[in-house]
Write a structure and sequence with these properties.
It is a single chain. About 0% of the residues lie in helices and about 55% in strands. Strands 1, 2, 4, 5, 8, 11, 13, 14 and 15 form a nine-stranded mixed sheet that branches. The protein has a four-stranded antiparallel sheet with strand order 9-10-16-12, with no helix packed on it. It has a three-stranded antiparallel sheet with strand order 3-7-6, with no helix packed on it.
């Protein structure tokens, strides 16, 4: 059999929980993000490697179980393997740790990762929304992560966007805060343990129709505003 060309991440570190904040700009089609990842160091190491592509890492900090933090001596990208490796000065012992990363990216038009989508509204004007397509390995285009289906964690997502828009994701909204400059911050409940490609979110001028199922479950059909009634039959 031919040798596999599959690229997989080292198994010395595994993620447990992501706390992820993303703020898209629908005017210049960029986004900025920050994440705090609870990880388990399985084997002592000086290196942590994640999947990452088309993302610019602005900062990184690792805090160990002792509470001491350290920034990497070097940050190395491998475009062919779609990875970023953080090299630290001192060895990280086995146990729990927290990896904090700040980054920026582009809301691309490639229908993959965190991307922009356009449509014509009911007034005939062109509008944009920010949405995701992570299956099977494109979450790495939205945030540095362990982007392999076999590696699972929980995700707590926060989105920052213009107040007149709406955001939906895998989980119910847990909180909403109005910010300055016409922005709001919407947070969602933690997801179940799952792969990165199952995480999904949309930000846009959206509206929904809903109905209660026999068991009490609320079912919603979302659409761009003005077209939500087209989902009535499906509902």
């Amino acid at each position: 059999m031919p040798e596999s060309k599959r690229v997989t991440l080292p198994t010395n570190v595994k993620p447990l929980r992501y706390r992820l904040t993303l703020e898209p700009d629908l005017d210049d089609f960029t986004f900025k993000g920050a994440e705090s990842i609870e990880v388990e160091i399985v084997d002592a190491t000086r290196e942590i490697t994640l999947n990452c592509v088309e993302i610019e890492v602005r900062s990184c900090k690792l805090t160990g179980a002792s509470g001491e933090g350290q920034s990497p001596l070097g940050t190395h990208f491998d475009e062919s393997r779609e990875t970023v490796m953080f090299q630290f000065d001192s060895e990280i012992p086995p146990g729990k740790a927290r990896l904090e990363i700040e980054f920026t990216g582009e809301l691309n038009d490639k229908l993959r990762g965190f991307y922009r989508s356009h449509y014509t509204d009911t007034d005939g004007a062109q509008r944009f929304m920010a949405t995701t397509q992570f299956e099977a390995t494109d979450a790495r285009r939205a945030f540095p992560c362990w982007d392999e289906p076999a590696i699972k964690a929980t995700f707590q997502l926060t989105l920052v966007f213009p107040s007149e828009l709406v955001a939906i994701s895998n989980m119910p909204v847990s909180g909403e805060i109005e910010q300055s400059s016409g922005l709001k911050q919407v947070s969602f409940e933690d997801t179940p343990l799952m792969s990165t490609y199952l995480l999904a979110f949309v930000i846009g001028d959206l509206a929904a129709i809903e109905q209660e199922a026999e068991d009490g479950t609320i079912i919603r059909v979302w659409a761009t505003r003005g077209k939500e009634e087209q989902g009535r039959f499906a509902l």
